[in-house]
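Recap from last week: sequence in, structure out.
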Amino acid sequence: MDLALLLALMAIVIPVLLHLLTRASKPRPGTAKLPPGSLGLPVIGQSLDLLRAMRANTAEQWIQARVDRYGPVSKLSLFGIPTVLLTGSKGNKFLFFNPSLASQQPQSAQRIIGERNILELMGADHKRVRGALLEFLKPDMLRLYVGKIDDEVRRHLDENWAGRRTVTVMPLMKKLTFDIISLLLFGLEGGAVRDGLNRDFDHVMDGMWSVPVDLPFTAFRRSLKASASARRVLAGITRETKAKLQRGEASRNSDLIACLLSLTDDSGAPLLSEEEIVDNAMLSLIAGHDTSSILLTFLIRHLANDPDTLAAMVHEHEEVAKSKGDGEALTWEDLMKLKLTWRAAQEMLRLVPPVLGTFRRATEDLEFDGYLIPKGWQVMWMAPTTHKDGSIFPEPDKFNPSRFENQAASVVPQCSFVAFGGGPRICVGMEFARIETLVAMHYLVRRFRWKLCCKENTFVRDPAPSPLHGLPIELEPKAASP
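Predicted structure tokens:
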């Protein structure tokens, strides 16, 4: 696209957006009023302000400043779309459980992942695809895969941690979680195909939150190109797995693709199309490795300066190890005993949620707390508004895993801890993330001691949290452990 054509398109698009923003900002006769706030500059709105705050790690203060100024409900404009920001557990509950609010991804993410992924679907299609994914991710299925995850973690530590004086945690955690998820989703063992897919996904992530203009040398172009490459690989794996199922060389329990291909409707027809399988495999790869790697990285970061929690965690894991034979893999039953470790992980997710917040789209005019949410507007929730609320979590900036010992509604109101979202669209991979985290931490805390290399213990969001320099640490091996 040459410059003249781009300018011509902008001359057409910008006036249309201005008209839509102006029209949307006017209350409709006979309805509730719009929330307080400002839509800001045309098209740009508050997008740059939010992105700057995320990159400066001041997003929580940015959100709180809006709440202090406008209250728990306010209007703004993000990424060219009028938006209502809802805060607090009441707002979260309204957003998570309202069937008239559809999932809303940035256009860039939609084009990169595919239009038939579960985040884009509504109604019967969403229920059908979600049910298919849950068939693979339900506990009865996941217990079959603990041994495979155990093998991957031990192999990873032997190859990438053992014998090293220093390591950089974030890229290694991304590699570990990608290897685990690609093994369980597609049955991919280590090798050229898995390594190539991993490289593709590094670039897929580059343009997930970018201006969706397909021009040379842009992050969006790189992501589209990497997405196309990854999709070709996944489509090939899908066809190969289908052939293996027909020959009896694979079963429904082999991996996610085999499971999805095995599902049929009442008439015996495939429950999911190949496009839906590939699109949701793309999404599962992104969600299944990126968020877990962030959790593991920030747990390691915190434990370096929290000897009491680390000692309690080591004790818990050593107690489990005592019941195992040399080299014996962890089991589902072993993981159920690691309660302190998961409470620490939940507390880490509360303090540093991998996803700061997401959007929904109003499919009709809605009213919340006396305010109008017009059809077509975005509705946004942000995790820190409840995660850092001192009335819900006393001393909210303090790391305190014990606060998750009792999560009764009388202690933590519904939709207050929202690291995995909530309602009918709560993360389908929540239980998988727990297993992956517990297995990884079991071998990390028993095999190594570590300390941070950087005196500054900071991180930024772009849009996911990333610690300074990827979190380099100094390693010290412990006495040999099985």
